[in-house]
Write a structure and sequence with these properties.
5-stranded parallel sheet, 6-stranded mixed sheet, Rossmann fold, 281 residues, alpha/beta, globular, single chain
């Protein structure tokens, strides 16, 4: 067979492949450790506000095509696909996502089962505490080929929290204590088994209600009044920036949305401690 015949035969094979399968998908590995079928996702749906923030920290905001109504929209064209309790499966399918990211915390398993039955690419991660957030950050970074960026963020978060811990340890021979209020009526606190608590403890503080077995226990107001603590952080919706006291305690008013399980929460905490070069009281 001469050279021209071989070329013509090769072109016929390629043409038949295109007609049968619609396109040729070629994927190159980015390193010797990558699989030959390396995928880069371009149409991502976030099912949680903290995941949306995490994706923004990784620099992939423009790839987000769908978010919940509780998320801060990363851009004007991002579509609302539902909330914590329900999702619009028809809208999600119409968006043709190549990746959907969710979390195990405060999630409806029924929602996830719907997505799986629809053969959508769902990945679920844990964000119950600070260490899990950091692990999930790095896992998602690897998934999106942002490994170096994720590692850089994780190291910077640890560095900042260690600096806060050193400051707190220099000021006192004991761990300073705190209460974290997440709701005023009924009075609800964050126990040790929560992201908020583990974040503050990484900064060298100690949760006075850390041993409670419920993540967000409802407690009697007298319990809080009797507890002597260094800081009372108020994340409740009722709190206002001008508020100074609640239940006879001087409070530090904070917005819960600024302290979701995402890298931005560490930077926000640092700003609180740096404000006016004073420690919060």
């Amino acid at each position: 067979m001469n050279k021209n015949n071989m070329i013509r035969k090769g072109l016929v094979v390629i043409l038949l492949y295109v007609l049968l399968f619609g396109h040729i998908n070629v994927s190159f590995a980015t390193s010797t450790n990558d699989a030959l079928t390396t995928v880069k996702y371009h149409r991502i749906i976030s099912l949680k506000p903290n995941i949306t923030k995490l994706l923004e920290s990784l620099g992939v905001s423009k790839e987000i095509i769908g978010v919940t109504k509780f998320c801060e929209k990363p851009h004007a064209t991002a579509v609302i696909i539902g909330d914590y309790n329900s999702i619009d499966l028809e809208t999600i399918i119409r968006l043709k996502p190549d990746l959907i990211l969710g979390s195990n915390e405060n999630s409806q398993k029924k929602q996830y089962q719907q997505l799986i039955r629809a053969n959508l690419n769902l990945k679920v991660f844990d964000f119950y505490n600070y260490e899990q957030m950091k692990t999930s950050l790095q896992s998602i970074g690897t998934l999106l080929h942002r490994e170096e960026r994720a590692q850089e963020i994780a190291l910077n978060m640890d560095r900042q929290l260690n600096q806060l811990k050193e400051i707190n340890s220099l000021e006192s021979k004991r761990n300073k204590t705190f209460i974290a209020i997440v709701q005023r009526r009924p009075l609800m606190l964050a126990s040790g088994d929560t992201f908020i608590s583990t974040l503050l403890e990484k900064a060298g503080l100690r949760n006075s209600f850390r041993l409670n077995q419920i993540s967000y226990p409802v407690v009697d107001e007298e319990e809080v009044v009797r507890e002597l603590v260094d800081y009372t952080f108020d994340f409740s919706h009722d709190v206002k920036e001008e508020d100074s006291y609640f239940l006879n305690k001087k409070i530090v008013p904070l917005k819960l949305h600024d302290y979701l399980a995402a890298p931005q929460s560490v930077a926000n905490l640092v700003e609180v401690f740096k404000m006016n070069n004073q420690q919060p009281r």
